[in-house]
């Protein structure tokens, strides 16, 4: 039974990653996310709710209109799915206060999401935004 729950949860997270984040399907976002969704690791100064996550996803697609996720692997422990992925995109709009540069960027992220009754209820995650700022020229590369 746990295997079935895990596989169903992985499918929900894959749809969010590929169709919502990668495809901008905002109607599907509303279907996949629980109304009482809680983000345990929100961006600094941001709310922890469903509306904030939608806003973040939409801002990413404005900053990177060709935003594309590449899932490397997913692991599930019951209803919690951990995903390691790389995001790719061309910087054509403001991102983290950096105006459009036209540069192609990629950055890794690891997140864990809980899925209950086919709805995403919780999120924990870490994204390598330092790397993005370096790629955009907003931060100097670290000395070796």
TrEMBL record:
Which InterPro entries does the record match to this protein? Cyclase_SnoaL-like, NTF2-like_dom_sf
**Family annotation (Gene3D superfamilies):** 3.10.450.50
Q: Which Pfam families match?
A: SnoaL
User: Which Gene Ontology BP annotations are present?
Assistant: polyketide metabolic process
Name recorded for this polypeptide: Ester cyclase
Source species, please? Xanthobacter dioxanivorans
